[in-house]
Amino acid sequence: MAQVELKGVSKSFGKAEVICNVELEIEKGEFVVFVGPSGCGKSTLLRLIAGLETLTSGDITIADKKVTDLPPSKRGIAMVFQSYALYPHMTVFHNMAFSLDLQGVPKKEIKERVEAAAKILQMDNLLDRRPSALSGGQRQRVAIGRAIVRNPDVFLFDEPLSNLDAALRHDTRVEIARLHSQLGATTIYVTHDQVEAMTLADKIVVLRDGEVMQVGAPMDLFNMPANEFVAGFLGSPAMNFFAGELTSKNESAAQGKFNGSGLTTDNVRLVSASKGVGDAVKLGIRPQHLELDEKGPLHGTVSLVERLGTDTIVELLAADKMLFRFATSEACNLVIGQVANFSFDAEKVHIF
Ligand code: ADP
Ligand code: MG
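That is the input. Now the predicted structure with adenosine-5'-diphosphate docked in place:
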């Protein structure tokens, strides 16, 4: 049985339904990321699992035990928040020991558990410090240590990196990935950042307005998005969309005409099966999947060139003034004002 199971989970605040009928299974040891734009319900869903909010309807099971009506302390979870909220007057050791002290765990065992967690986090030499004498990254590690000492069935993280600067965010992200491979603990991690989701997750849950849009392995979602929202949300720079009309379709493929950009396509995956011939559709092409090609069907006038070192991102305007992007890791001599032509592999694009 799954380690965490959500059945028909809904949550309303007053009349506003912010979580709508979520069904989800999380396996033991899995690293699951809830991702979506701000306000889509990620924190609420995590807080429902933690027991910090009560469900409007549905059920939650953790480690084969129905926890829907249990308080947070009885659910076998430990949560790490965005604001690490350490006790400023306590040392690192006592910050990490605090919850075990409250539970009445014997002093000797507390010492062992705190020291073991400190070792995992490479903080054994910081145990006597106060939080004010730590960097932001070290403070966040103490907060993670507080969760580790409790030896929970499930770790819950709510945007734990958002208060850190870019370099530290990267280091701490790597550390969380390492920690997970070391402990193998079931982890649910909330972020609005699709890069964190893509790099950390075994399984991504994309949320929009309280509804699950798609669940799957990062590259499955990237390559086979279930809808335009998921396609546009994952991947950087974002997928290009060209508006047009469906001209024919069969079971597995479709053809479309995308007038503004002068494109017609053959045998493209039709994502929205309900679309029929003559319906308005969009062609989705990732910037990385465009190839410079003198004879290519897509034309654009270069409006911006961003050289990032390894990659170059070029912004172009199509015939209908529609903006699209081209991304390449190869040398790129395009200049502003120049017209460039592109082709693409029909197998890598989608019609929504
Ligand atoms: P996210 O974490 O994805 O940014 P939240 O789960 O915090 O989103 O919020 C989802 C929606 O629920 C938002 O519209 C938010 O305003 C609303 N919400 C969250 N908590 C409460 C609350 N305690 N009372 C009323 N509305 C809330
Ligand atoms: Mg949130």
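Residues 4-232 form a domain with the Rossmann fold fold (CATH 3.40.50.300).
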